[in-house]
Design goal:
By secondary structure, the chain is of the alpha+beta class. It is 23% helix and 39% strand.
Length: 153
């Protein structure tokens, strides 16, 4: 006969294991997950190439701290300015790596940072302008030592 306490401990352990297993499955990154993350940002709007410059090394020794610069050609006036810059990585557990928001008083639309990359993949930067248009640039990056490898057991 199992006591109530033993039953509750076993049930809690089982529920925790199921939650971890489902989280591990959800952490599997795919290009489709990146496309869904992009769709959440841009909706059904057309994304055009140009105006955005994504600078990231095409070959990275260590994916734990990859230098990244995104700049957007814009006069940054009240009428014509960058509202946001978003960076997506197709094989990271969370594909929306970065979102930076601007207004006309920012002076220039530029982001300089370091990101983690889980594996060799395509990195995409999308800029949202004040007129509602979206502009993009992409870079294929080869990572020799991957980051973001934490998995649930």
């Amino acid at each position: 006969m199992t006591s109530r306490r033993d039953f509750l401990v076993a049930a809690g352990s089982l529920a925790g294991g199921v939650a971890l297993a489902s989280a591990a499955g959800a952490a599997r990154a795919t290009p489709a997950a990146m496309q869904e993350a992009i769709r959440k940002v841009v909706g059904e709007a057309q994304i055009r190439r140009g105006r955005v410059r994504l600078e990231i090394p095409p070959l990275v020794d260590n994916g734990n701290a990859v230098p990244l610069t995104v700049s957007v050609e814009s006069p940054m006036t009240q009428v014509d300015h960058v509202k946001a810059i978003h960076v997506f990585a197709e094989k990271n557990p969370l594909p929306n790596v970065l979102s930076a928001y601007f207004n006309a008083r920012a002076g220039r639309a530029r982001v300089v940072t370091r990101i983690r990359l889980a594996d060799s993949q395509t990195v995409t930067a999308i800029a949202e302008l004040s007129d509602g248009s979206f502009w993009t640039d992409t870079v294929d990056v080869v990572v020799t030592l991957s980051a973001c490898l934490e998995e649930f057991v």
